[in-house]
Amino acid sequence: MGAAGRGARRGRRSPVCRARAGRQTPQVGSELYALDLSGVEWHSAPSGADERVEIAYLPGGAVAMRSTAAPETVLRYTEAEWRAFALGARDGEFDLEPGSHNGGAPTE
Hints:
With 108 residues, the protein is of the alpha+beta class. 30% of the residues lie in helices and 13% in strands. Residues 1-24 have low confidence and may be disordered.
């Protein structure tokens, strides 16, 4: 995506940005994993699949992520880590090249 496309997107605020608006305290290491997740609201993309990824917004702009296949295993990311991941995904940083890992099918 060209610079014009990225610039146009920056004007909109994503749910992640809205969720962390006004929060000043960054979460780090043990603090992040010490948070009680029993009352968080888990979100996922609409899907008919039994297995999907869910995320929950945490204090300080942090994000928790889990799979419905193993909900007891929860990964937690600081605001900076989540932002880096989301921007990298948006920019295609993690796109797979066609190859043996996906049967040689082209990626879109």
